């Protein structure tokens, strides 16, 4: 099948390429993957969708998309407080590191630790807030 497509003229291949869904095209090669993810992150995704997607990447220990997303999202390294559940993290990258540690995704944890040059006592800045009502 691949040989048959390679033997077709370029005009026909481009027309066929337009009918293939974008989700299928992004799985074909690296450049299509990068362009699809960049388009999603700068257009369609809201903050909640980004959080869900990053949790999916870390749960499944997918290092390739994580590397690319950390390269294009430099603002995740800034010291802006990020709150998730009852925990307040100093930055989003610290949250990703803790999430990878909790989900046993070793590749993601090692990559985040290496790229961020984490200090050893960074965990002291993570604050928990338990506010439960008791009668």
Strand and helix layout:
Layout: H1 2-6, H2 10-19, H3 22-25, H4 30-44, H5 47-59, H6 63-72, E1 82-84, E2 87-89, H7 92-102, H8 106-116, E3 127-128
Antiparallel strand pairs: 1-2, 2-3
Helix pairs in contact: 7-8
The quaternary structure here is: single chain
The shape is elongated
Q: Structural class of the secondary structure composition?
A: mainly alpha
Poorly predicted runs are none
Number of strands: 3
Rg from Cα: 20 Å
| Spatial ordering of strands, largest sheet | 1-2-3
Sketch the topology as an H/E string, one letter per element.
HHHHHHEEHHE
Give me the number of helical elements: 8
Describe the protein.
The protein is mainly alpha-helical and 135 residues long. The protein has a domain at 45-128. Helix content is 59%, strand content 6%. Helix 7 (92-102) packs antiparallel against helix 8. It is elongated and about 70 Å long.
List keywords for this structure.
135 residues; mainly alpha; three-stranded antiparallel sheet; 8 helices
A few lines on this structure:
The chain is mainly alpha-helical. The chain has eight helices and three strands, in the order H-H-H-H-H-H-E-E-H-H-E. The chain has helices at 2-6, 10-19, 22-25, 30-44, 47-59, 63-72, 92-102, 106-116; strands spanning 82-84, 87-89, 127-128.
